[in-house]
Structures are given as structure tokens and as C-alpha cells.
Amino acid sequence: MMRTAEWINVVYFPLLAALAWFRPLDVRRRLEIAGLGVAGLGLTLLGRFSEAVVPIDLSGALRDWLPVPILLIAYWQAGRFYIAPWAWFGRRLQTLDEWAGSALAVFGPLARSYGVSRYLEIAYLFAYPLVPLALAVLYGTGWGSRADYFWTVVLPPSYFCYAMLAFVPTLPPRLLDGSGSDALGRKQGRRLNLWVLDRLGIGANTFPSGHVASTMAASLVMLELLPAMGGAFLLISVSIAVSAVIRRYHYLADAILAAALALGWWFLLGRL
User: Of 56, 219, 261, 268, whose CB has the highest number of CB atoms within 10 Å?
Assistant: First the structure.
């Protein structure tokens, strides 16, 4: 039978593909969105029916791990909606950041220090492997049977953030220095993160932050099932959120709303 996380994929990918035909996109982009939707849906169904051709244990493991690449496909699919930023909305986000920056200016020298800046860059780099790492830890500690629950917590808030690109497209604040280049340059431990973004990113800002939503959701599951290790994962997730804002990968509102979204969804599932 279909798992809950698989049903989420079966609903999400066709809906986003259909949405493309109601947005001001050219035919090529619409077809690209449809193609990525087919890829995400196809991988989901491949996992679901894999038990017909491989041993049941291998099929189960495949279904546990397929959401890792599927999550990336969902991100790329949503990225094809991005054409140009919504300037008015971006200015509102920037204004909030400037207000918060003024209120927290006393911490500015600390945030720009050699050690802290590198810690934040390393923390943001964990935005990519933290979710599969959390699943690996669950596997290694005997909680692999909760993989479907793990993805049921992680996927909806992540997909919501991605889908919002179709409605509130913005540029990452690190690009808004007036010339379109990276405002902080490729210094202070930043080079590796920018290299990854150049190759895996979509060139747009997700509002709320997909990285914060997915890592926070994964950490909350860890905190629930493995409190001690979950505390460490939660610390990393908070560091990712702080880094996203201070190092200008995301706006303050992106991080706050993404964390609230993950927390709210996790809390709601616990009450259902």
C-alpha cells in the first residue's frame, strides 16, 4: 500500500505541474516543470512497486531513501517558476532586515569575526546533508521503521516553501548590492557554499526558506525519537537558520516563517 509520504508526492508533483499552465510562463518552462514532475512522480511510483521485482527488505529501504533525491527534484521543479523578482515584496523583506539589523547592531562585530563567520558558513553547508544524515541516524539506531513518519513531517513544509516561488519570487539578499554580484564576495569561508549554490541552486530565494523548513522538520523528528541526538541536530538547524540570515542567504522573515511552519506542522501531526 502507498505510504503517507508517497501520497504527498503523488498529489504535489501533478498539482505543481498543473499550476504552471495558470502562471505567466512560456511553453518551454511549462514543459520543464511537467518533466520534473514526471521524474518526481516516477521515482515515487518506482519505489512503491519495487517490491514486485526486488526483495521486500530492499524495496522498503528504497522507499525510505528515494525521498532524498525527490526532495531535490521538487526544489528544481519549483525553481522553473522563477522569471523575475517581485521587487515590492523584496523591498519589504529587506526593510525588515534593516530594522532588525539596526536593533542588533551591537552584535555586528562578533558576527563578522573570523571564527563566527566560518562557523556560520559551515553551519549553512549542513543545510544540504542534514536531512539524509538524520535519516541515516534513525536507521543506525533502530528507528528505520519510522522513515515514513520522518518524511511525512519533512516533505509538506519543504514543498510549501518551494511552491511559494510561483507566487512570491524574490532574489537572495546576498545578490542585492546594487550590481547583482555577491554582496559579501567569495571570502570568509564562503567559497564552498557559493560553489554548491552555483551548481545545485535555482538562482532565486524561497520564501519561506526551504532549507530552514526541511532541516528544522528533520531535527524535530530526531528530537522526538532520539532526544539526546535530536538536541544536537536542533542546534545545527538553528545555526543554519541564523547563518541563512546573517550571511545573507535568506531574509529574516524567510527563516522565521520556515521554522514556524516546520514546528507547526510537526505539532499538528502529533495531535492527529
Answer: 219
